[in-house]
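This section describes the prediction task in plain terms. A model, or a person checking by hand, is given the sequence of a single protein chain and must write out its three-dimensional structure as a string of tokens. No templates, partner chains or ligands are provided. The sample shown here is typical of the held-out split.
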Amino acid sequence: MDVKLIKTETDYKAALQRLEIIFDAEPDTVEGDELEVLGVLIDNYEKIHLPIDMPDPIEAIKFRMEQLNYSNHDLAEIIGLKSRVSEILNKKRKLSIGMIRKLHKALSIPTDVLVQEYK
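The expected answer:
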């Protein structure tokens, strides 16, 4: 096992190629240990160099509604009036703290996604 820190994009690509080769390695073997270490190193590199932005709060709500097969009526039962749901989904009304709490609890959307500013 010859594992080194991932410092450049070339190192990153090489680590991904090696990971692909040993992906099915058995745990508690030399290759299994290498797989675990590479996974940690790749994850660390990606967090630093390839961060993923959080989704738009309204798009996150729409996505979760789609996943749960919820209608606007279902969302109205969570946050209040149906007209308010329409205004929120069309970005004509901002989410209130109370709505954010209810959406977080009912739809399991992280609060740090819901509290973001949006246009």
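For orientation: Helices lie at 9-21, 30-49, 57-68, 72-79, 82-89, 97-107, 111-114.
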